[in-house]
Every structure is written in structure tokens, then in C-alpha cells.
Amino acid sequence: MEVTKDLIGKFLVHKIDGKILAAEITETEAYAGFEDRASHASRGKTQRNEIMFGLPGFSYVYLIYGMYYCLNIVTEKKDYPAAVLIRGLDYPNADGPGKLCREFKITKEIHNGLDLIGNILWVEDRGIKREIIALKRVGVDYAGSSKDWLWRFKRKDH
DNA sequence: CAAATGATAGGC
DNA sequence: CCTATCATTTGT
């Protein structure tokens, strides 16, 4: 869960069509383990979420509500399902999981299962320190006991 | 507040 | 195979 907080203030960098898109991450949310009913992986490995069971440092992109993509970064070790959803960037029209994927042209066809080693998509530490606040997660009321976990983090002034 | 919109998972 | 559901956004 430390990783979730650490991502705030770091930069998401995406290389596409010879151009570089980069923006500071302002909001993240964690999904992990089998107890977390809000996580795609809580009911076991499936074709869609198998990346969450793989090695950390990979991207997990999926289509939600038939119209928007969401970008996640896999954390924890192999065979333990965990990922951090990038919920917001400091970039025009990128203040939401679906919106930032639209702005950064992230699609599941291209970006699902990428190794974040710096080729196409990666996270960069530019040494920015931010004051971070913890919040309840959103859109997960169906998740039962895990719905009130403070697994959402964001930059204080946003 | 409700619609848009399609992949997915779980049930049959 | 069938269908309820969904880690959202946008417009009324």
C-alpha cells in the first residue's frame, strides 16, 4: 500500500507517435488481495485480471462501462493480486480514470500488460514532495466490508 | 439524477 | 448461451 501513496507527485510518462506526454499523478486508489471485494481479482484469476496476479511494474488496462479505459499499475509480488488505479493527473481534462486514458491515448489493445521500463509508458520520480490525504474509495458501495477502507490517496490541494 | 455502451463473469 | 453488472462520464 506504500506504493499507492508514493505514486502521488510522481510523473506518468507516455511515449506515443514520437511525442512525449507527461503529467504529475494527483490521485490514486489501491485494489488488492482476495478480501477486497471491490478488486477485480478478489474472486480469483480470470482472463481479464491475470495481469494483477503477475509481476509488479506492469500496466493493467481495461474497459469499463463500455466506454472508458482505466489505467492501473500492478504492485506486490507474483501470485498476489494487487494494483493501483490512476485516478487523476495534473493535466487538462485528465481529472478522472477514464478521462486521463482518453487524454493520454491509453487503450487496452496497446497498453495492457506493458512492462513499465521506459519504452512506452512509465512512471518517473522528479523529486516532488506533496502533502497527501487518505480518503475512502469511490464507486465501490457494492464491496461490502471493504468499501470503507482508506485506500484512496490524493494530493491535498486538488 | 439517468443514460450511454460493451466486455465480462457467473449462472444456467 | 444469456444477462446483470460494472474501479465512469456527461448531460438534463
Query: What's the order of the H and E elements?
Result: HEEEEEHHEEE
How many strands, which pairing sense, and closed or not: the largest β-sheet? 8 strands, antiparallel
Give the domain tally: 1
| Overall 3D form | globular
Radius of gyration: 15 Å
Mean pLDDT: 95
Put simply, the count of helices is 3
Task: Describe it.
By secondary structure, the protein is mainly β. The chain has one domain (2-153): Roll (3-methyladenine DNA Glycosylase, Chain A). The protein has helices at residues 2-6, 97-103, 108-111; strands spanning 11-16, 19-32, 59-64, 68-74, 82-90, 121-124, 132-135, 152-155. Strands 1, 2, 3, 4, 5, 6, 7 and 8 form an 8-stranded antiparallel beta sheet that branches. Strand 1 (11-16) and strand 2 form a beta hairpin. The two termini are 21 Å apart. The structure holds a DNA duplex (12 and 12 nucleotides).
Q: What descriptive keywords fit this protein?
A:
158 residues; 3-methyladenine DNA Glycosylase, Chain A; DNA-binding
Short recap of the structure:
This protein is mainly beta and 158 residues long.
